[in-house]
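Before the break, one more example. Copy the sequence into your notebook; we will annotate it together after we see the structure.
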Amino acid sequence: MSFTSPSPAPGTLDAAATAACLPWDALAAEIAALLQDSTVSVPARTVLPLPQGGSLFVMPATDSRVAMAKLITLTPANTGTGRPAIQGDVVVFDVTTGERRLVLDGPTITARRTAAVSLLAAQHLAPQAQGPLLIVGAGVQGLAHLEAFVQGLGVRDVWVASRSAASAEALVLRAQALGAQARTVADADAAVPHCPLIAVCTPAHSVVLSAPPRPDAFVAAVGAFTPAMAELAPAFCRHVAAHGHIVVDSEDARHEAGDLLQAGLDVGMLPTLREALQRQRAPSAGPVLFKSCGWAGWDLAAARLAMRLGTEGAPPTQATP
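Here is what the structure looks like once it is written out:
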């Protein structure tokens, strides 16, 4: 019996090549398109505990053309060691042939799709989308949200608050390189009254924002993704619930959004981003809190875009296998 050898699988794309497949505006648009695609199937993610507080995440998703699985580890103990806290890959398959088509850098996918979801939410829900923008937390997600909001919304004034002065200064320099004015601030709460755009991007070990937002504020909170985690003070969340609007990124957030659950809010009654976009109009008045916990559907959107740009456009540079 003879067997036909499959076509050689492509090499793994490194972080830079993965990012090149995911321009901010195009990725936000792909996420919006995915939310209208009835063929998308996203089972609940599997999270397995690892020693020293780490976790292994297994996140599959499919549509009519693409199947993908994200396999990453989160290792908080790596902070400050030079090793990344998030490591892993996103493997993309053609559903018709079963062929593996791409292997994308997992941390890059996670950073860019998270910020692109915040960008999409801001494009549709932010009352004052031009900023100034306050970024709380100057790590990977702080950088991703800086780039997404500067390049996707046209923000030109950025304030950075971080417990690490060196990280805050580095993010300021990056903002300036992108053409924005930028400064560091010692107290995030003191900056809140001056900033109608806020991105809270910390590891969520403790509350970092307590001051109530402006009536025209849009707040994207992305650091807390379990019921035990929180970046926002309970009073902050209750203020927005009473005077404005709260939107969660997916149905999974209804049992994962620690900020909201710890505030005693009925998270199950809050609209998802899909539902908010279907209304096709921005909230009428009051601050908007967009609470994002992550969802494999966002990774699928990134995989779809990378497949399209990688096969129909110029092939991205591949890392050495």
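The chain has two domains: 15-109+297-312, 114-295. The mean pLDDT is 92. Try to locate both features in your own notes.
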